[in-house]
């Protein structure tokens, strides 16, 4: 039963994070048992985990609602990541780059030069790059923290409004080059500036609505 509950949890979590199940959606236990092919007991276990994760709310009348992520929450994540990852980039520069980070730098360079990429593909590449910086810094706990932050951020519809990623890819290249050059101050400043630009893009999109 635990395996069924785990599978139901992972599938629902992925659908909520990626927006396949939109915020403010009311979830029907009966409907979910049919879609997921599980009984109500493992489903309720899965929903309980999602509730503890802050992804769904069980209202007083028993209705299960997918929680939304506000613009304010999104910006708080950006600001927190700016501090954490700015420090990580500087530490990575002091320790030296890695083969993995060099490989990802070259992939980002191709995107900066205009190679086509979908939102979903860039989202994965972006996460891989940022985790590689954390790993180069020797910060073993940070990649999991980033996964949690990104899972929340992706649920905000504002994150899915982009269709071009050349500027973000270029910023990644500059960060990786500063790390490779061993310039801790530049690496820190570039990573912090990267998140300033992320915040500006979010706010610009929001104001343009």
TrEMBL record:
<keyword id="KW-0805">Transcription regulation</keyword>
<protein>
    <submittedName>
        <fullName>GntR family transcriptional regulator</fullName>
    </submittedName>
</protein>
<dbReference type="GO" id="GO:0003700">
    <property type="term" value="F:DNA-binding transcription factor activity"/>
</dbReference>
<dbReference type="InterPro" id="IPR036388">
    <property type="entry name" value="WH-like_DNA-bd_sf"/>
</dbReference>
<keyword id="KW-0238">DNA-binding</keyword>
<dbReference type="InterPro" id="IPR011711">
    <property type="entry name" value="GntR_C"/>
</dbReference>
<dbReference type="GO" id="GO:0003677">
    <property type="term" value="F:DNA binding"/>
</dbReference>
<feature type="domain" description="HTH gntR-type">
    <location>
        <begin position="2"/>
        <end position="69"/>
    </location>
</feature>
<dbReference type="Pfam" id="PF07729">
    <property type="entry name" value="FCD"/>
</dbReference>
<dbReference type="InterPro" id="IPR008920">
    <property type="entry name" value="TF_FadR/GntR_C"/>
</dbReference>
<dbReference type="InterPro" id="IPR000524">
    <property type="entry name" value="Tscrpt_reg_HTH_GntR"/>
</dbReference>
<dbReference type="InterPro" id="IPR036390">
    <property type="entry name" value="WH_DNA-bd_sf"/>
</dbReference>
<dbReference type="Pfam" id="PF00392">
    <property type="entry name" value="GntR"/>
</dbReference>
<keyword id="KW-0804">Transcription</keyword>
């Amino acid at each position: 039963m635990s395996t069924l509950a785990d599978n139901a949890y992972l599938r629902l979590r992925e659908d909520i994070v990626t927006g396949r199940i939109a915020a403010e959606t009311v979830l029907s236990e009966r409907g979910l048992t049919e879609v997921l092919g599980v009984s109500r007991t493992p489903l309720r276990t899965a929903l309980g985990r999602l509730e503890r994760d802050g992804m769904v709310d069980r209202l007083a009348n028993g209705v299960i609602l997918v929680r939304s992520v506000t613009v304010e929450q999104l910006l708080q994540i950006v600001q927190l990541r700016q501090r954490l990852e700015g420090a990580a980039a500087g530490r990575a520069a002091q320790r030296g780059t890695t083969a993995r980070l060099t490989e990802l730098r070259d992939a980002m360079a191709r995107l900066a030069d205009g190679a086509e990429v979908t939102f979903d593909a860039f989202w994965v590449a972006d996460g891989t790059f940022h985790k590689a910086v954390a790993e180069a810094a020797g910060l073993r706990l940070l990649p999991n923290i980033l996964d949690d932050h990104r899972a929340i951020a992706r649920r905000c519809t504002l994150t899915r409004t982009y269709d071009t990623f050349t500027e973000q890819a270029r910023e990644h290249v500059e960060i990786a080059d500063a790390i490779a050059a061993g310039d801790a101050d530049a690496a820190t400043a570039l990573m912090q500036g990267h998140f300033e630009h992320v915040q500006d893009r979010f706010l610009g999109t929001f104001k343009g609505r």
